[in-house]
Amino acid sequence: MKNDKLDEWLRSGAEQTENDSIPPDIQSRLQLVYDAIEQGQTGQGIRENLSRDPQEEQAAAVPDTMEVQPVVKRKSRNMLRYGMTAAAMLIGIGGTLGSGYFSADMAHTLKQLPGVPAVYQLTSHLGWVTADERESEPDPLSIEQQGVTMTMESVVYDGRKVYLELKQQHDTQKQPVQDVEIYINGKSAASAKEQGRIQAQHHSERTDQYRLYLNLDPQVLFGLPDGIVSNEPSDIELSQMPAQLNMQIRVSLKQNPNSPFIYNVNVQKQAQTARYILKKKASLSENLAVRTVEADVTPATTYVDLKIDGFDKWHHRYEGGGVHFILLDALNRPYHPLADSGEPATPHMEYSSLPDDAGDLTLIPYTFNLEPISRKYPVPIKNEPTDDHPIELDMGTTGKVKIMERTSTDNEITLRIQPGEAYQAYMVAYSLWYGDQKMHEARGRPAQIIPDSAHAGQYLITYDKTKLKPGDRLCYYVSNMRYLGEIPLTRVTK
Q1: Which strands sit side by side in the sheet containing 391-394, from one edge to the other?
Q2: Rounded to whole angstroms, how far apart are CA atoms 50 and 42?
Q3: What is the C-alpha to C-alpha distance for residues 222 and 231, in angstroms, rounded to an integer?
Q4: What is the structure's pLDDT at 11?
Q5: Whether the Cβ atoms of residue 363 and residue 327 lie closer than 8 Å to each other
Q6: Taking 60 as the threshold, does the pLDDT of residue 250 lie above it?
Q7: What values do phi and psi take at 275, rounded to 5?
């Protein structure tokens, strides 16, 4: 999707004059670097060459029979500026020749200066990389205060979202996270609390792990007044989003919200890693036809947009009915949307980023449009299940499942299950939950669903045991839902 106002604004902003060409004296210094490297000189030798005065060398090369008149020339302010720029560039080059590596701060600063593109062409030609171009995870950022150590383990920005991984370690009393906020140029661009995204994925006695997907406010990203860009990030193309951001990330705790952990980071927009389109025409039940599918994968998120014909008639027929989509990769790993939006006939979904080995994909649409939606039952566990004696459950139209094994540690409970079909795995897994004796609470939703590499066609479901209370038991839903078919997607070259 495209935002025309933003596109017009970007075009107008792009009409800027290029930097002046690099003056000859600076070009000569850069040429020294080229020549020295081609000759295989050491870093020390290159630095010595850079310290020599080209004008003195030129005078020394003139035959004695010629009289050289001194030339006094006032340098313009531009030349002085170029000279200072060149000095910074050349000192930077000389100081980093031995390492073949520029720091992120140096890269960010030098790229703003005139003439530096030539330096970066040089480094690219030689195979050197800068810290902001190297594909590697940054060192974790840790802050300790009031008995809590908060570590920012990963920050990934793809243009629309920021994906964060946080590890919280506490000495004594557990202190839950109240909010994670992102500020850009002093303005709030995202709040985990407002977006309802604060939930620890893994617990232990002393450690909590958080994975957060935060939408960035486009108005703040572009520093523009209301009305220039859509408030809906999915309406803006990834290519239009800023290439890099300086952001401040504030993590506040419930017990002490006024003393947040503060991280100042510079992030580069991560390139799209894969794109998928409709593999072949997909006709679903209820006379629904999939017209187009576009899926863009970034290191932070997978974005999927569809167009479905016949949806309006179907929607009116089943008042209040909606369609949801499970994503299944080539290895039968299931993904459920992190968020969805858009019109029913043109839904937009967001999933976690896909691994490199995802292969071709399949979208599985399903719907709850009949009453009753679900009924609750306790799982009849007389003895622990085994491969020879599994517990078999009939979940109605959700599917049938066998519980093959249940294991437990201090922090987790793991079920090994075998669904009737791979596409049913996600809904079957989420139909198994832990609640109290009266099944009033579903405290134990699955924290993770992954294929079991040791048993073909089976899945491992983990539950956070620290959330459960004494007496909680395993329960399941029998739901009246329908799978509407399969939508095959194939990966295309970018």
Answers
A1: 391-394, 400-408, 412-419, 459-464, 448-451
A2: 13
A3: 12
A4: 54
A5: yes
A6: yes
A7: -140, 140
Instruction: Spell 442-478 as b/e; 16+ CB within 10 A means b.
Output: eebebbebebbeeeeebbbbbbbbeebeeebebbbbb
3 state SS for the chain: CCCHHHHHHHHHHHCCCCCCCCCHHHHHHHHHHHHHHHCCCCHHHHHHHHCCCHHHHHHHCCCCCCCCCCCCCCCCHHHHHHHHHHHHHHHHHHHHCCCCEECHHHHHHHCCCCCHHHHHHHHHHCCCEECCCCCCCCCCEEEEECCEEEEEEEEEECCCEEEEEEEEEECCCCCCEEEEEEEECCEEEEECCCCCCCCEEEECCCEEEEEEEEECCHHHHHCCCCCCCCCCHHHCCHHHCCCEEEEEEEEEECCCCCCCEEEEEEEEECCCCEEEEECCCEEECCCEEEEEEEEEECCCEEEEEEEEECHHHHHHHCCCCCEEEEEECCCCCEECCCEEEEECCEEEEEEECCCCCCCCEEEEEEECCCCCCEEEEECCCCCCCCCCCCEEEECECCCEEEEEEEEECCCEEEEEEEECCHHHHHHHHHCEEEECCCCCCCCECCCEEEECCCCCCCEEEEEEHHHCCCCCEEEEEEECCEECCCEEEEEECC
Side chain identity, residue 493: T
- The span from the CA of 405 to the CA of 154, in Å, is 34
Question: What is the reported pTM?
Answer: 0.66
Report the 10 Å Cβ neighbour count for 187.
12
Instruction: Decide which of 61 and 345 is more confident.
Output: 345
User: How far apart, in whole angstroms, are the C-alpha atoms of residue 184 and residue 491?
Assistant: 35
Tokens of 70: 């001194």
Mean of pLDDT values over 193-214: 81
